[in-house]
Design goal:
The protein is α+β, with helices and mostly antiparallel strands and about 200 residues long. It has five helices and eight strands. The protein has an eight-stranded mixed β-sheet with strand order 1-2-3-4-5-6-8-7, sandwiched between helices. Bound molecules: coenzyme A.
């Protein structure tokens, strides 16, 4: 049954996050076609068809779960400025075989970099995982060399838990993956609770 307490969108200072839908796919494709955005993403470049093929089923399942009043197991969010300008996307993904384990991920348009959009988005994703998914662990990964992502994941309180040498292949080159993570109780849960309160996540 549809739960009217389930919100579709949350505002965090200067950005809004809303559940993504199929209409966002062209903007996702534009984002992922920027070589600077994709520089450290093992799954780019991605054609519009590939973006549709990957995100389409995820977004359909998300819509179905939400229509049933459920919290999506994989939640994909569109990030917008308050005037509706597309800034990027983020996701909270249930980790296979890790009970209450969630992975966070984010990609932002180049024009949005360097002004805290990523930090606020990361805080929102962690707060969402804790408040709505009852996360026990939160993790995130990036390729070695992706200084922006590694800095952000650590700023969120995730620790470097390990490396996977040669785990990813991008344009014929093997890359090491850095694995960051933390049990939720080791994070700054008071700060994340404030984010949940400010965005309205905690009242859902
Ligand atoms: C990673 C990304 C989301 C960061 O977003 P952002 O809005 O620029 O991040 P913020 O402005 O909140 O910065 C967060 C911290 O990282 C640091 N940082 C960001 N980009 C950096 C870079 N390229 N090099 C070094 N530090 C960087 C900032 O200085 C800040 O640290 P501080 O608060 O100690 O100063 C953004 O650069 C991006 O979308 N990159 C391309 C896609 C990608 O790699 N996504 C991650 C996939 S694993």
């Amino acid at each position: 049954m549809y739960d009217s307490r389930m919100s579709d969108a949350w505002t965090h200072e200067t950005e809004r996050y809303r559940y993504a839908n199929r209409e966002d796919i062209p903007a996702f494709a534009e984002l992922l076609s920027d070589p600077e955005v994709g520089r450290w993403l093992w799954f780019t470049p991605m054609s519009l068809d590939a973006v549709r093929e990957y995100f389409g089923p995820l977004l359909d399942r998300q819509a179905k779960e939400r229509a049933a009043g459920e919290t999506p197991r994989t939640a994909v969010f569109t990030v917008e400025a308050l005037n509706g300008e597309f800034l990027g996307h983020g996701a909270v993904v249930g980790v296979e075989a890790s009970p209450n384990g969630y992975e966070i991920g984010f990609q932002l348009m180049r024009k949005a970099w360097g002004r805290g959009v990523g930090t606020r988005l990361g805080q929102f994703l962690c707060a969402y995982a804790i408040e709505l998914c009852d996360a026990y662990r939160i993790e995130g990964g990036c390729l070695e060399g992706n200084t922006g992502s590694a800095t952000l994941l650590q700023k969120l309180g995730l620790q470097l838990e390990g490396t996977r040498p040669g785990y990813r292949l991008k344009a014929g080159v093997r890359h090491t993956e850095l694995c960051f993570g933390s049990e939720v109780h080791r994070l700054d849960t008071a700060a994340l609770r404030r984010v949940a309160d400010a965005t309205g996540l905690s009242s859902q």
